Amino acid sequence: MFSYSDSDLYCENVALADLATRVGTPAFVYSAQSILENYRAYDEAFQDIPHNVCYAVKANSSLAVLGLLARAGAGFDIVSGGELYRVLEAGADPAKVVFSGVGKTPDEVEYALASGIHRFNCESEAELLLVDAMAARRGVRPGFAVRVNPDVDANTHPYISTGLSEHKFGIAISEAPGVYERARKLVNLCADGVSCHIGSQILELSPILEAVDKVLALAASLGNAGFPIRHLDLGGGLGVAYHSGQKAPEIRAFIASLHDRLRASRLCVTVEPGRSIVGPAGILLTRVLYRKKNGPKEFVVVDAAMNDLIRPSLYRAHHEIIPVRQRPLPSITADVVGPVCESGDFLARDRTVANVMPGDYLAVCTAGAYGFVLSSNYNSRPRAPEVLVEGGAYRVIRRRETFEDLVRGETL
Ligand code: LLP
């Protein structure tokens, strides 16, 4: 959805240089077509298997993005009351919402029950007791799945790997049967599912397949023990290509590789993809402020910083950085850095980038997931606007913050 025509970078049919001039920089820009295509790739790949594609709201929680997905029929995976509020504001059907997360508060559980969400993925026995007690008070009987930890190494960044027993997530798969047994006496809950999620930005399918086999075996044995298991939630985690030339698994091929075993299980399958739906659908547009040299080292100082996109600083994540207008000049090797007062404020280090000059625009690629949502006001920088492109049109779906926004809610 992002491609060059006559040396100018476009998002769908919108020239990004024009957009940058009108909206200003830094700005996040998303392609609606790309988001919808990625969502539909999941939805269609399941074919004849009953399924729910519950988009992981944490990846990009802008109302317009949620609304786009809700209208396309998506369900939602939420991890907080705030995310529930957002999906309801966006017009989502609460019956398609699954509530995950290791630290649900009583207020959040109450809000979720009052809203009539679909199901809970529970991560501890104490949480099961809480949800049971609150469901009793409301006279409802929600379905739940225990999030099991299958002890599979997702081979991804340690901060976003979740499926090993050393992580805080889930309940060890070996202990799960005992938890379900003890939950039999929680009469306000229906033990009708099993869930897992082993990590994010997973590029090899084998860990996912291993986890799926383990949870399928658990679901079958729970079924034999008399539990009405109908739901299998496989979480999210499919990786995307951040490096040019890198090959990430394709969504359709990924689901196809699971298709036969899932179909044979006769379960309703939920997936919770975030990054693979919105990541490649977004960029962060930024403007070059200065070029400078410190000794032999060259810097391109831009107007986007770690407060706008923290992934490079936090995970050493690689995002391609490409010019919005290509010029026939030899490229340079430089650090691309922002204005924030930290040495850790960089978007790229020792990177071969275009020979840009002050005033030129750059696009930081694959920034649609875990971009804006992780942004902050550090250094009292107003947060960037978000723009949604649809064909030849675009609209600002979140305006740029103002200085007044920065102090809203504060008192002297
Ligand atoms: N379901 C659960 C229970 C999760 O914890 C997550 C992500 C997802 C679904 C969605 O995973 P995805 O399909 O997006 O990989 N901030 C990090 C990523 C954190 C992911 C946390 N959990 C980053 O920027 O890479």
Automatic annotation (TrEMBL):
The EC number(s) this enzyme carries: 4.1.1.20
Lyase in keyword set: yes
Single GO term (MF): diaminopimelate decarboxylase activity
Catalytic activity: meso-2,6-diaminopimelate + H(+) = L-lysine + CO2
Active site residues per record: C341
Cofactor: pyridoxal 5'-phosphate
Keyword terms, alphabetized: Amino-acid biosynthesis, Decarboxylase, Lyase, Lysine biosynthesis, Pyridoxal phosphate
Involved pathway(s): Amino-acid biosynthesis; L-lysine biosynthesis via DAP pathway; L-lysine from DL-2,6-diaminopimelate: step 1/1
GO biological process per UniProt: lysine biosynthetic process via diaminopimelate
Assembly, per entry: Homodimer.
Role noted for this protein: Specifically catalyzes the decarboxylation of meso-diaminopimelate (meso-DAP) to L-lysine.
Protein known as: Diaminopimelate decarboxylase
GN (gene name): lysA
